[in-house]
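Q: A reviewer asked whether we had any structural model of the full assembly, not just the individual parts. We don't, so I'm hoping you can provide one. Inputs are below.
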Amino acid sequence: MRRIRQYKWLLFLLGGVLAVLAVPAFSYLSELTTPGPQQDRWDFSSAGFAVQWQINPAIGSNISNNGTVSVTQVIQAAFNTWITAPNVTMPITEGTQSNKTAAAFDGINLICFVCTGDFSKEASTLAVTISTSANAVGQATMHGSNSNFVGQILDADILFSPSVALSTTGGNNCGQSGGQCDLQTIATHEIGHFLGLDHSGVVAAMMFPFAPDCRQTLSWDDVAGLANIPGYTAATPVVSTGSISGTVTFAGANTPVFGAHVYAGSTTTADPYTLVFGNASTCGAAGTTIRKSSVGAMTLPNGTYTITGLPADSYIITAEPLDLPVTNDDVSGYPSAEGQSAVQTNFTTRWH
Amino acid sequence: VKLTRGPAARLIVALALATSSMLMATTVIPMSVEDLTSAASDVVEARATQSWSQWDAQHTRISTYTRFQVTRRLKGSAPLAVVVRQMGGSAGGYTQKVAGVRYWRAGEDSVLFLRPSVEESGMMAVVGLMQGNFKIVRSATGEIRATNGISGVSTWNAASKTIGTYSGTGMSLAELEKRVRQAAK
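A: Here is a predicted structure for the entire assembly that you could use as a starting point for your response.
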């Protein structure tokens, strides 16, 4: 369903192959806050505050199978998927239950199933995550302290629509008449936003904007995006990774392409994460698994990109326009944070 | 070696999305133009003239407000100027984000599917989070098109076991107007 190819040919320059870089670059996956822009993230250092999520366990008749697997268990499992991801350290814990019924910047990271608002008035909106971040150092955190950096996440609330049929034991024809959506699939995606991740253009990623009935495990792309966030990276990685960087420019004019989705796809069957975490599970199966996928990044206004978090392997690099199924609107925070009106899509997909 | 992705690769993408009936942006299910029209009290063509963000009285939520000049009514009897409220924005040294919500800039033209906000009297809200926002753009060939940015999604019809095309796709403005007027009858 991509648009007809048009305009100029793209010249892709591969600047380095699996070389660990010291130069920081923003992963395409992160939410960004200006000025800077800076990657949105929690402060897990000793200078920050303890990060907890608090659930309001009240539910409506739209949620089924709560007696078999409770909503609290589902949310615990979804958070656990991220917290136990390889190569990251994120000390997020479950706090006391809450009786709050509205999203607010109040120091409570609320998980709510009975909250209402404009978002909940149609059955088309399943859930929203509303996060609050600091635009400057020294902003009140609601925890008796001040923000330590631009982009520090201070509060994040996940609200599930009470108008949508949800199941705690798996989805079936989500979005279809009479169907149910899998709560854990939706929760895991939303927790990615809770952590500061934006949408990904990699189809197999948890943070891809479109999901099947059931997707509860992370992909290489999700792990790479998470490990690229300052302060989240584990001191000792479970799987060693490297980076690929380069520049995307238009042929002839040699002008940079902003917002090209560049991704590295493995050409082998090697899977170091499988050796560590076991084979990928089916929906609802216990255990932490990482699905092998491409790993993506976006080019900066000067056309450069850095794909981080790549396990040692052989890769093909592809540059593609975000012209469907993921579009500029799915990553609208990225161009605005980079001072651009939109990502460029006037080129054709190329790979090396 | 440089290659251009061909039809086969596109088919793979389409098939990969065949079971993807759920859009998580934040997390919404695609709505057709007809569904959007039915859910909207007003459908208008309008130009954004002013936008601002502010905290609520309790200083717990930031909302972004955009004033629109209505140029054409396709459904309902909206006044010539409407204000649309969206979740999130930046104010007072903080930013609140809702993934998938896009804010307008002054001068942007859109077809808006609106209904009264339940959170703030006198304000309008976009139907389907951002699905009811069709940006009007002029293509390189001069055609005026409208797109809500989530088009091109293949849907899986479980009953018939068939892959369909999500109809709320980018289209000519004339076609969108026609479908809205037809659905509003």
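A: Points you may want to mention in the reply: DSSP finds five helices and 20 strands in chain A. The longest strand of chain A covers residues 125-134.
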